[in-house]
Amino acid sequence: MRQVIYISTATSQAGAVDASAILAVSQRNNGRDGLTGLLYSDGKRFLQALEGEDAVLSRALARIEKDPRHRAIVILSDRDVPAREFGDWSMAHRAPGTDAECFLQRVADLVATASPQVRATFTGFAEVRRAA
Ligand SMILES: Cc1cc2nc3c(=O)[nH]c(=O)nc-3n(C[C@H](O)[C@H](O)[C@H](O)COP(=O)(O)O)c2cc1C
């Protein structure tokens, strides 16, 4: 099982990118492909974790990397995991303007069983965004 975590920057000029459209397509495709993970977005930055079989994950990443709605993709982690660390979620997401504390708690719950490195990545990113 491969797990990839990356951050990227939204390219939308007119404010927040439409994350709900990204989410709808992701949930459909990822459900079909057996991919799970987490998408964090505050409208300006993305943080995504994706887990699944190597070949399908590579194909999804190839599509995602070409997507003009974001740029400056930086892979934070790319490794084999013995089992999924993001449970059965096909994609979890926080839209800008929704309750940050509530979302952070959900993220914390989701990554509770993840490796310390993954937990630190997510909580660190979320804290930085809250402080910004
Ligand atoms: C930040 C970000 C995350 C995305 N995550 C996924 C994803 O997890 N799965 C997926 O299939 N597409 C994802 N997409 C969308 C893909 O870039 C692409 O538009 C989509 O896979 C095309 O699917 P289609 O060929 O079925 O229309 C993401 C796009 C962005 C900007």
Automatic annotation (TrEMBL):
Q: Which Gene3D superfamilies match?
A: 3.30.70.100
Q: Name one GO molecular function term.
A: FAD binding
Which SMART domains would you find in this protein's record?
Answer: BLUF
Stretches of the chain forming a coiled coil according to its record: none
Q: Which residue intervals define the domain BLUF in the entry?
A: 1-92
Q: What is this protein called?
A: Sensors of blue-light using FAD
